Amino acid sequence: MQKPYAITLNVGSSLANHTGSWRVEHPEYVHRMPPCNKACPAGENVQNWLYIAEDGSYEQAWRELIKENPFPAIMGRVCYHPCQTACNRSFLDEAVGINSVERFLGDHALEKGWKIDPPQTETGLAVLVIGAGPAGLSAAYHLRRMGHQVVVRDATHQPGGMMRYGIPKYRLPREVLDAEINRIKDMGVVFQLNTRVDDVHDALEEGFDAVFMAIGAQLSKRTYIPAGESARILDAIKVLHGFEDGENPLLGRKVVVYGGGNTAMDVARTAKRLGAEEAIIVYRRTRDKAPANDQEIEEALEEGILIKWLSTVKYKGEDDMMIEKMELDEKGFPQPTGEFETLEADSLILALGQEVDFSLLGNNVDLDTKSGVMDVDSNMMTSHPGIFAGGDMVEGDRTVTTSIGHGKKAAKYIDAWLRQTQVEPKIDKEPVSFEELNTWYYTDAPHAVRERLDATKRLNDFSEVVQGLDETTALYEARRCMSCGNCFECDNCFGVCPDNAIKKLGPGLGFEIDLDYCKGCGICVSECPASAIEMVSDL
Amino acid sequence: MSTTQVKFYQVGSFAVGNRLLRDDERSVQSDPDRTNALTSGHRACQGCGEALGARYALDAAMRATNDQLIAVNATGCLEVFSTPYPESSWRVAWLHSLFGNAPAVATGVAAALKAKGNTTTRVVAQGGDGATVDIGLGPLSGMFERNDDVLYICYDNEAYMNTGVQRSGATPPAARTATTQAVGANPGNLFGQGKYLPKIAMAHDIPYVATATIADLRDLEAKVERAMSMRGARYLHVLVPCPLGWGSASADTIKIARLATQSGLFPVFEAVNGEVVASSKIRHRVPVDEYLKLQARYSHLFSPQRNDQVIDHLQRIADKNIERYELIISEGE
Amino acid sequence: MLRQVEGSKAVADAVAACQPEVICAYPISPQTHIVEGLSQLVKDGTLPNCEFINVESEFAAMSVAIGASATGARTYTATASQGLLYMVEAVYNASGLGLPIVMTVANRAIGGPINIWNDHSDSMSQRDSGWLQLYAENNQEAVDLHIQAFRIAEEMSMPVMVCMDGFILTHAYEQVDIPTTDEVKAFLPPFVPRQHLDPAEPVSIGAMVGPESFMEVKYLAHQRMIDSAAKVQEVAKDFEAHFGRKTGGLLRSYRTDGAETIVLALGSIIGTLKDVVDELNLDGKSIGVVGLTSFRPFPYEAVAAALKGAKRVIILEKAFSTGTGGIVTQDVARAIEGMGIKDFTVIAGLGGRPITIASLRNYLTNAMAENVERLTFLDLEIDTVEVEINKERALR
Fold first, then answer.
1. Domains, chain C, ranges and CATH?
2. What is the ipTM of this complex?
3. Cβ–Cβ pairs < 8 A, chains B and C
């Protein structure tokens, strides 16, 4: 074909015109902090393992998850999921059921028998972990992954800490707990149970290169309660611990629990399962102020447990007790009203909070404490070099997840201390807010609801109350994730560029801006559902 | 509606693609091997809605016709920014003749193909609102009346943009243009009779008439595909915001098109043989203010204070569209 | 074969014999019978593989032709007067894009005031457009020029107007020989476009050309028009070889050898002029006729050669430039510059005013004696115009 001068042009000859020279700013793909990741006390990369799970790659997703947290099956049952509270999807329809998906992955892994390989190389260094609770187990797991030799010592005869002795079976079946702990054992972590540590300094002389203390806060807070001679006043922790060990505490037909935390809920619900006709919780303040997780309170109420808000215990008799009604003053603090009520009560169980039992550490007077907890620096190290601490015994939220997070963090710093390197400082990134997303592209799809056992059926046994999701619904939930701040290859940017200046690199490889032609209009940034692109100045 | 219903709650029907979708469930635009009928290096403004619309429509047409396509273009922004000698950003067989004759030229192309016994190569004609609604209306009507086998696509940015934003027969009421300035007793364009081409096209009872915007890619592609499955005169009216002419941020182009549909000011529907057969329902309805205030061509309606009379009138127009084209599923349906 | 047919019908049959693939037309007197004839031929299958489009205006007609020709189809249309003006934008576009469209212009006066009868003002207004313009002297030449036009157009990649006097030729019945399809096929090969729209080999046709290249594009068109004169002659010669008659070409001279006075004209008036010249020669006058067939390209050399030796040339025109005078005169004057030939212009037949032998003889007799103004309007009602002129001037 002839192409007469200036009349006829070759196709695509405009590619010679590099319109990129027009712009003053250009887009860049970024990885921003999703709110779920930021909120997770264990530092899980939630958005990432959800992303992997979305196409059915469950094992890969599970392995991504356990890079940070070895206990997904446990998490899926006991974690209070601050990730869900932070989840941006809640502003659209409902938060993604992250916890349900985590549980699904954990259960699926157990079902499939997926294993964690022991480390490939050994560093030759040894760390002693004191306490086989979530903090200790997490630290042991991470240290072992890094190639260190780890020994875990615990004074009780089964590992698990509060996971076993504080959380009842109906919340966390023991088969699940044992299975996830055994995986850590299979990695080569040595467990020495029924072994008290009296002096941590001995450990360092014993040949351990570092120590991680995670003994928890096992002492119940006491308060003086006027009581009759044969009044039965019990300690919630001891009750739960004893029950785990096979004891059957005789609580009587009517049980009152004093306190508003999770332990109070747990022990009340356990009491009912053990046959108490009535379980009443007495709490000094209101429901919104109660430290217990609201879902626990809800479940407790569903199980027929009565809760007396704004009440304090005045006196315990043999088979009754007196409580005083409180009212909130103008500052929001409860004040006695002088009105009293008598309740029938065979036993009173105190669940008023926990304290660290420093006596367990014997002669370790050179380790600083602060406000009743172990004082540690930002590296989780105590005032004694080489001795680290975490979990309920240091400052922080007293939840399983937080403790797991402490264990991981401590492991990092122990590892750095052992090898005399530095841990890279974490850049505190702002999480992506809902307003920054372009939610037009997400269909409204509410939360799949986990089944709950019928309340009445629940009372007679300790079988699991909350069932998990099946695979279809777990997948549905995972796919509701909006992938805040991280590209999930929806192709929007590739499609909306008027200048065809974005290249699609292939599945899993993302996209690239063609700076020769990008005019910097910003439509890609505007139409990215996940806010994973930002404009950067060219000037 | 001819959109893909994807049972998938992350992004499905609304995004360009998704790594979890099968290839055939994704849009044409998500395909790395898409034609790129209008490729890089063209001189459109940053954020040009028409550039996007043209690529969307022609890539879909190329896919639907197995690359057997000839495009005829009217004079206007699209033609000027795409073929300044010696550069052409078209990757399809393309002809530009004059401002008002694109429909007639396309008729000629279709006739030549027919005379040669070529039944596979198809013809698309495209032009802006000025070329379509004003100066080209005669030839367009002729093309409709004869039912010539051409798909005519109008990229409506609601004014003569290429010559400097002058008012056309498609300029909406109250909009500021260079010949309907925001001054005097009645700033902006008048509230005239309007010249709504989709209805004019429907009045010819041609096989297919549809409206679309660049905010709903799947819908636009589906309509092009549906149009190319038919023979005879077909008309597609696509709303394409113009950042320069509308006075909007270049990054807002798609957002503004979206708001035009969600407010009801631009109804999205399909008509077959002169009767409306389907409409795209509004997902999240917004008052017309949300759409207007992003555009400086309407800024005189908000400053020094909100011009209630005019904006309410525009709201009534939107309300009427919603009712007429059944854009909202009411309770009990 | 020889037939006694209306000029329009003859043209229709001739065009059909060339096997166009797309015909599009909008009716306007006096072209209507041509397109009606073609419409019939397409509809009854005589002309197969052809799309006949009834367009909604002349602008559409030329536009459809542009689209069709750009797609590689042999394309034809016809118009006149107002219709030609209505499609002007497209006329220029067609030549600018180099599309070999053939169009019959059934010469008719341009309004206002509206007038449907013959003169050359319509095609003359398009002399700068880059189209070739070939004027038929009689219906036979009209037939032959159309056949030659397709070949010239396609070999030059330039559009061609075949001009034939409205009503005088279009509606006259003459005996003509109309070649058959096969005869034409032997002379006119199938259309091979230099560029066309093809998805297999896509190109962009119709770019915007800026100041840096526009002059060159236009110069190329100018040069092409000059070169087309040779093509016009070549095709006429080949036509003669095929069909045995001399039609088309650049010009024809009649009794110009040794003539003192030569009359130059275009179109059907040439026939009348020949009769007048015959009479005058019988009276012992020295006068001949040059009939110009090709007005564009203007055959400067051929005209100079044809007029060489004459003392004076009378250019008879059926159109003029308002306030200025003859149009063809300007080109002729340039051709004979420095040759010592005087030129006189006579504007005649505007709006279909009959040009009689008596008028011509009278005028030419005076012209041979150089007893005429440089510019004359033949048979003007002097009294009427003088009154009107004085009236207007008095009012100003």
1. 2-243 (3.40.50.970), 251-383 (3.40.50.920)
2. 0.94
3. 165
